[in-house]
Amino acid sequence: MAAAAAGAGAGAAQEKQFPPALLSFFIYNPRFGPREGEEENKILFYHPNEVEKNEKIRNVGLCEAIVQFTRTFSPSKPAKSLHTQKNRQFFNEPEENFWMVMVVRNPIIEKQSKDGKPIVEYQEEELLLFNGTFLRAMEDGGVKLLKERLEKFFHRYLQTLHLQSCDLLDIFGGISFFPLDKMTYLKIQSFINRMEESLSIVKYTAFLYNDQLIWSGLEQDDMRILYKYLTTSLFPRHIEPELAGRDSPIRAEMPGNLQHYGRFLTGPLNLNDPEAKCRFPKIFVNTDDTYEALHLIVYKAMSAAVCFMIDASVQPTLDFCRRLDSIVGPQLTVLASDICEQFNINKRMSGSEKEPQFKFIYFNHMNLAEKSTIHMRKTPSVSLTSVHPDLMKILGDINSDFTRVDEDEEVIVKAMSDYWVVGKKSDQRELYVILNQKNANLIEVNEEVKKLCATQFNNIFFLD
Amino acid sequence: MGEEDYYLELCDRPVHFEKANPVNCVFFDEANKQVFAVRSGGATGVVVKGPDDRNPISFRMEDKGEVKCIKFSLENKILAVQRTSKTVDFSNFIPDSSQLEYTQECKTKNANILGFCWTSSTEIVFITDQGIEFYQVLPEKRSLKLLKSQNINVNWYMYCPEGAVILLSTTVLGNVLQPFYFRAGTMSKLPKFEIELPAVPKSVKLNLSERDIAMATIYGQLYVLFLRHHSRTSNSTGAEVVLYHLPREGACKKMHILKLNRTGKFALNVVDNLVVVHHQDTETSVIFDIKLRGEFDGTVTFHHPVLPARSIQPYQIPMAGPAPVTSQSPVPCKLYSSSWIVFQPDIIISASQGYLWNLQVKLQPIVNLLPDKGRLMDFLLQRKECKMVILSVCSQMLSESDRATLPVIATVFDKLNHEYKKYLDAEQSYTTALEAGQSRSSPLLKRPARTQAVIDQSDMYTHVLSVFTEKKDMSHKFVIAVLMEYIRSLNQFQITVQHYLHELVIKTLVQHNLFYMLHQFLQYHVLSDSKPLACLLLSLESFYPPAHQLSLDMLKRLSTANDEIVEVLLSKHQVLAALRFIRGIGGHDNISARKFLDAAKQTEDNMLFYTIFRFFEQRNQRLRGNPNFTPGEHCEEHVAFFKQVFGDQALMRPTTF
Prior knowledge:
The structure holds 2 protein chains of 2 kinds. Helices cover 38% and strands 23% of the residues of chain A. Chain A is α+β, with helices and mostly antiparallel strands. Chain A has 3 domains: 16-164, Beta-Lactamase, CATH 3.30.450; 175-240 and 260-350, Dynein light chain 2a, cytoplasmic (Beta-Lactamase), CATH 3.30.450.30; 358-457, Beta-Lactamase (2-Layer Sandwich). In chain A, strand 4 (87-95) and strand 5 (98-105) form a beta hairpin. Chain A is flat. In chain B, helix 6 (476-492) packs antiparallel against helix 7 (499-511) and helix 14 (606-624) packs across helix 15. The relative contact order of chain B is 0.06. Chain B has a 6-stranded mixed sheet with strand order 20-21-22-23-28-27, with no helix packed on it. The radius of gyration of chain B is 38 Å and the shape is elongated. Chain B has 4 domains: 1-10 and 209-315 and 336-360, no CATH class; 18-159, 7 Propeller (Methylamine Dehydrogenase, Chain H); 371-433 and 449-497, no CATH class; 559-656. By secondary structure, chain B is α+β, with helices and mostly antiparallel strands. Chain A binds chain B through residues 177, 180, 182-183, 185-187, 189-190, 193-194, 196-198, 215-217, 219-220, 364, 366-367, 369, 408, 427-429, 459-461, 463-464, and chain B through 405-407, 410, 477-478, 480-481, 484-485, 487-488, 491-492, 516-517, 519-520, 523-526, 545-546, 549-550, 552-553, 555-557, 565, 577, 580-581, 584. Chain B: One of its GO terms (biological process) is regulation of autophagy.
């Protein structure tokens, strides 16, 4: 990343560049210490923790003041962010009187302009997923418990935050769906229904392949957060041991058992160990209405991962885990190889093996579906894109233009050298295309994009 | 034992005849299934009753001695009567022909006639102890012509009219069987075969009795059934029935062994392709289905009874007939009586009581006797009258109290659809052949018969699924799982899913607010595109806004619904989008200007109205060389509005050349 940044923009060569970075992040509630001398009580969480107490109080106070001040101009919509020469602050009030503030250092060359805002929101959502609402935590165990939970959550979460590699995909926070033929999809449906029937305590199920979603029993909003957690946090943590060949997937099973590749990503590591702990992460879904607490069981065989969510009031036992392993393991192994085989057949038939000619990012707000041919590999720490970061910034800018209006629109930008960037918005869909054609003019670029739409998006209603 | 427990019954309209007694002899003809009651050698009358014709044939004939055998030729044209061991007498029953008897003596010297069989309306076979003689009867000449004969020592014979095969028992032991096949004036000798006797016989005498052999057609194939009794020397657990397949060409082959697991007196019937074995000692019967999976040892398949042994359902003899009306209380019939005689395939005769019954299988009781649903389906799908029973099994396995697990439900659906697909394929190749110009009358081209085992989507929808989804107490998870399982099964057999099934899925999902699930199904095209489905989605928009996008996508993919797309967009006041769309597909020269101007005006967006108005002015210019609207377009109101808002000078001027 550093190398790529250093090579950017010839005009800025003398300036030293810094990637955007998180300076501080804190959560406070002004109601908790309204009187002078008690200000410290307002602070529920502060990162970095090493900061001197008075500075913490000062920063919180400043934010409070800004919010109060801006409220006078717009009582219903107080300020969301404040941009200063050196940094940018984002304010978010997820629940009444609970404020989350994030301070991000600006890159010297203004680059990462809009991306911060959604990230704060995801943070809040993911917090919600794993911890429930602030108020609920307060009811459970007062401020002390709330502080403990925040500490625990953000300690880990902030490590997964990599501001320098955020781009358009992080703004969308979309879900990548695994392309699949109808028959294989129906087989997966059948598998899920059978599993839910035999493991009757399972309330919801989600199915992923190659880190892409195939089925969600959760509602879309909850799935979006869970998807982000799985793909940016849980799965990457388990890739390393797989690659290293540790905890060899084929286990020597007890005689009579079918060999299979299934294993738990959350919960017990070794089912043969009678002392194995069956502790699963707790998540909170449907927080708006029913507010359900669930245990999250993630089980994986080869590239297929299933999330089983069971009511938090039921504590899964080792026996249950063994049963799950013996039922799900063999079937999921077979299914995973079916999917793989079918996927390869489809790929060969559509001939999409070869490098896609077009570089584009597609996002549909309706189902959160995203697709990118720009990202070679998206990991939490590195976003490996095949285009120049400056082009990515243009994409971000076009997107922020789109968010301002409801109408369909189209933006065509001539970037440096021979690059053209096209942004299209049709109903709830957005498409960004990057073209590189020598001496192309506007009409030719328009034609190219039409061609792309005709080949890639002919099965949806996408106006050109 | 309740009535719901018996799976075999006697038909309720038996053939009633005068029971056998010293002056009344009773004969049964297997070819025509007729019972002959011959009183005093025919002098006081012969009454012939068949199962189908309710009008008995009665006639008298001269008493020329004891009748040994009496049979009509096919279609009741000629009557043959055997009274001596050397001759058979004939008389014509053809209208306007001589009824004088004529006689044929067997050709072989010193031979005794064991019996005779009609193989057509004018062809007859004499079986003697020294061979068989095949004759053609010439009724108008009142004589017979020998077509073919064959010398062979015969112990006994057996005739199967369905297969037109006569089986002769030869050799001293009697266990070498020689089949002959008859067709249209020809007699062909099939390869002989040997029946393996249960134990090496102690003495050289006839060891195979005709009582232990039967012939029947099972699943379209002719089989010789051999009842092999339990032998004390071997350690087998009981008697068994051995099935030899007798093909038209090639050698007879031992194929199946039915394990009876008991000993005693048995009788065989074949009903609806099932082998029924009656056991007199226990007064029960068992059934076997050779199509059900058995244990194959490399050469033969071993079968066990499909169901536990049960008696034939108790039967009351109706006291019908000329008896006084007062004493008409029905009398229970003695089942498994020693006076019963069984004939193939499904006939039971009680000569002492004067009844002929057809044996029948009742399917409904079997449903509860066969807990394995997969096996039950395999069994039912082979039966003639299976449709309603199968559908009731499907309903039952989805009911709250008797619910089957999803894998079982999936198995049942797969079995049904396998059968359904076979029929669809046969239909398809029939249609293709017709289109390819084969004539309808060609013998090779036969419209495939639709048996009751073909359970199609509308059957399932009407009798099972629509009822099931209406049930209030059903968990929606289960309902959706079942519907998806049925759709999965149809897809697996590459059967096009009907849209009413998709509608059922959508209805269920919508009822339970599972819109996101619906969205995902549509995303993976599980619910196939169709105009009705797209319209259904449109109607859901107020509950679930993304349904609008889903619907438009679907209309777009259909590619025959462009008008609908325009209407949808206009109704959403997306006039510009509608216009761009229609221009994109090149249909903008034919659209109604008035419709678009109306929609534009409704938006109360003057700039939009201007744009649309200008577009049509340009179109007019391009098409007609003049920007003005023609009176036929009915746009006067819009022109006036345009002038009022933008002024006269804003109107496009005709280009002058």
